[in-house]
Amino acid sequence: MLSNHLQNGIETAKMVWSRIPNAEEGDHEHAGLLRKSDGSSVESLEYEVVENHAYWEEQDQRGKLFLVYYVVVKWFFALLIGIGTGLAAVFINLSVENFAGWKFALTFSIIQKSYVAGFIVYVLINLVLVLSSVYIITHFAPAAAGSGIPEIKGYLNGVDIHGVLLFRTLIGKIFGSIGSVGGGLALGKEGPLVHTGACIASLLGQGGSTKYHLSSRWLQIFKSDRDRRDLVTCGCAAGVAAAFRAPVGGVLFALEEVTSWWRSQLMWRVFFTSAIVAVVVRTAMGWCKNGNCGHFGSGGFIIWDISGGQEDYSFEELLPMAIIGVIGGLLGALFNQLTLYISYWRRNHLHKKGNQVKIIEACLVSLITSIISFGLPLLRKCSPCPDSDPDSSLECPRPPGMYGNYVNFYCSKEKEYNDLATIFFNTQDDAIRNLFSAKTIHEFSAQSLLTFLVMFYTLAVVTFGTAVPAGQFIPGIMIGSTYGRLVGMFVVNFYKKLSIEEGTYALLGAASFLGGSMRMTVSLCVIMVEITNNLKLLPLIMLVLLISKAVGDAFNEGLYEEQARLKGIPLLESKPKYQMRKMTAKDACRQRVVSFPRVVKVADIVSILQSNKHNGFPVIDHTRTGETLVIGLMPRSHLLVLLQSKVDFQHSPLPSDPRPGSRPIRHTPSEFVKPASSKGISIEDIHLSSDDLEMYIDLAPFLNPSPYIVPEDMSLTKVYNLFRQLGLRHLFVVPRPSRVIGLITRKDLLIEDSEESDTVELQSTSVRSRHRDRSMLRNGDAESPLLNVLVQGHTSS
């Protein structure tokens, strides 16, 4: 029945997705620009190098010294990203822990006199913190809501979403996370830390924020989307490393979950960035040990040390551990489906009513969460403290909000504790630490764990999607560790072995739920080992992760993929759809091709840009015999820059002189790059006089003379793999060529440096033709075209 329910949910989600407008259907006016319901635009990034005249002139001016400088600056930026993300994590953790510490200390002191007064204070503090968070998001940084991981995954997949990587988003993410997590909502700060690291990396890559006058010219080195993509990847890894104190897990998270392109050079820089974060966090923790951090104590930076727990496991324990994996896959898939339903309803009904409704909703969720976390422990009967063990550092009882087990809450006797308050009326980090703890058999009753599981699971589902920064790692660990500990209790009672620890099963439950919801395997496995400091449990964690992922995949996709689809982020997954095998490249070309002549009138450019939203245009020229030739691809962003600058306008409708050096290039490649997450220049922002409209522009020096092309009968599967693996934005579809001018093999691509000169020799068994001067190739006229056929495919993205 559950399978049928989730299958129906999958079909509903597909229907939801089909209603979202895309670039391949509907109004041609919106071709290449996916419009979300909130009005923001989703636009493809340009990872391909445009090898036009401006690019080659810039390359000719750069020597080997610049290449060394370029590499050094990349490593320096990796250092800055690590330091910046580490400091941001320190600030967030210190703030959250101190707010939570003050809240619980004040509440506990008040409830010694009156539980009613303590409840009112507790609710008001949570309400103020959540209100501050949702106000920041709704009025200052709307893009900072949620975890941000689906948006960053989309960016690294080649999709730019307006506002995701801006400076105000970074500020909103940091302070919004402090309010939402400190306010006790059923969410975490780990997802927002990934987004924070990505924002820091993006801002460094473009030299800061010009809007808020926080930019520096000496930082403005990396202008291409390709370089920024690598920096953002470093920022994502740094965010995970800072959130979990798991540098290796951060590297693997970036590799497995968020990035779509990976290189060995990038691996080194990502690893270096994560190592820097680990150093910064460890330094901060050492400073806090001296009592300089207020209520920070042992919380904040997650590490739930269970190295002193279960030493070994027996063969008969593998069955209940496998059951934990199955439970994690089922509950994780159900969580994804429920959050998809609720997010869809919020998006299309509730949040359309304005910011005031978003604020009321977040405050209402905060009120419900506070009532449940404070009220349910009051209904639970206290338990007597266990006999003290001289070898144990555990103390019973302890006040709420303090590091340790056995919280005293609404207990009539001094040596009693409330097991439900130990996990409910506590910070999430300390609650997880209590659930993972060893040598605490029978600390929690099955009734309390089941009550907490049902209520917290419901709260996590309802809270997900509110207008506050929200991560799902910590709620997932809370949910999983609860049912894992439940299974551990039954195993202890069944096998009657003193060596079995309930905390071990809690850890496996946490891993299984995250695997069943997020569908990560390798990175999640390493993260769980790093945060628990217990390598002996690695095979068991691998087992439950494989089982939970397999079970979850039988019902729906991972949490981030589902949310990205709902938000209208057109991700290109690693594998093409099965039905693409029976389609060709020509079948996918549904748009009418709009092209420009080589020398085009300014008025014609303006008219075409206003009449459609294509982001790429073939440029057509003619030979002396009248043959039509395609000489390249002109991006829309380049046209807008040329129209805005006006320096390349000419009176003559004839092409400019093609000889080298006959015409200076007044633009650098960096001028054509749009700032990250910004709308860039639009045709409405450009003002031209009537005289300007009568001028002409020669597009040849600015177009991309060598775009990628595929024959029209190539299978769509091969086209998909080529498009995704190269990170393309446009791909020409052409008829089958009539002749072949050469054949490149592996040996043709092996370049050997000459010791006597700066030239290179191509090691090839084929017959070499005479090398033509590269500058002549770049500045030749249209009789040496890119293509000798007309484009038959669509070029919008």
Main attributes?
three-stranded mixed sheet; elongated; disordered C terminus; 16 strands; 7% strand; three-stranded antiparallel sheet; mainly alpha; 797 residues
Range of strand content: 5-15%
Distance between the termini: 42 Å
The total beta strand count reads: 16
Strand order of the largest sheet: 1-2-3
Number of helices: 25
Radius of gyration: 30 Å
Overall mean pLDDT stands at: 82
Main sheet attributes: strand count, strand direction, barrel closure: 3 strands, antiparallel
Low-confidence segments: 9-40, 755-797
Based on secondary structure, the structural category is mainly alpha
Write a compact overview of the structure shown.
This protein is mainly alpha-helical and 797 residues long. Helices cover 51% and strands 7% of the residues.
Report on the structure:
This is Chloride channel protein. Pfam families: CBS, Voltage_CLC. The protein is mainly α and 797 residues long. The protein contains 25 helices and 16 strands.
How is this fold's topology laid out?
Layout: H1 2-19, E1 34-35, E2 41-44, H2 53-61, H3 64-111, H4 115-139, H5 149-156, E3 159-161, H6 167-182, H7 190-205, E4 208-209, E5 214-215, H8 225-244, H9 247-258, H10 264-292, H11 318-350, H12 355-378, E6 383-384, E7 416-417, H13 419-424, H14 428-436, H15 446-463, H16 473-495, H17 502-518, H18 522-532, H19 538-553, H20 559-566, E8 596-597, E9 599-601, H21 602-611, E10 616-622, E11 628-635, H22 636-645, H23 690-693, E12 696-698, E13 709-711, H24 716-726, E14 732-734, E15 751-753, E16 760-762, H25 774-779
Parallel strand pairs: 8-10, 13-14
Antiparallel strand pairs: 1-2, 2-3, 4-5, 6-7, 9-12, 10-11, 15-16
